[in-house]
Write a structure and sequence with these properties.
The protein is of the alpha/beta class and 139 residues long. It has one domain: Rossmann fold (3-Layer(aba) Sandwich), CATH 3.40.50. Helices cover 19% and strands 27% of the residues. The protein is built from three helices and seven strands. Strands 1-7-6-2-5-4-3 form a seven-stranded mixed β-sheet, with helices on one face. The chain is globular.
């Protein structure tokens, strides 16, 4: 387990870049935490690490954004899905088992369909330290 404390959005982006060093084609990363806790900023760091400077935004209504770079990145936001049956998520397999990296915000909502090798990352706000402090835990 690794733990990071950030106090700005830019620090969270930098942690995302550092984390990306250990990713490769086929990696699946589950990102969990409350609204506004840094999940999308972390994804931005990963996307930048792999050579894409597009605006990164959470795909809440489209479910998935794709980013080109040295490795294809699939960025999911499954906030609107809650405990779907596995057959309702069959379409995700096309991404999970492709030649890209899958990053899934609100992954707890689809826990039952995540592959066993999924990397878990949890984000927590730390209001006792300051409004912008975040703890990022990688398991």
């Amino acid at each position: 387990m690794e733990k990071y404390i950030t106090k700005t959005e830019n620090e969270t982006i930098e942690v995302g870049k550092k984390f990306a060093e250990g990713l490769s084609v086929g990696s699946i990363v589950a990102l969990n935490g409350d609204l506004g806790c840094g999940k999308t900023a972390f994804v931005k760091g990963i996307v930048e690490y792999f050579g894409n400077s597009d605006d990164v935004s959470s795909p809440t209504y489209t479910l998935v954004n794709e980013y080109d770079g040295t490795v294809q990145i699939y960025h999911f936001d499954v906030y609107r899905l809650e405990n779907p049956a596995p057959e309702q998520c069959d379409w995700m397999d096309d991404y999970f088992f492709s030649d890209g990296i899958s990053l899934i915000e609100w992954a707890d909502n689809i826990k039952a369909v995540l592959p066993e090798n999924t990397i878990m990352v949890t984000f927590k706000k730390l209001p006792e330290k300051g409004e912008d402090y975040r703890e990022i835990i990688v398991e």
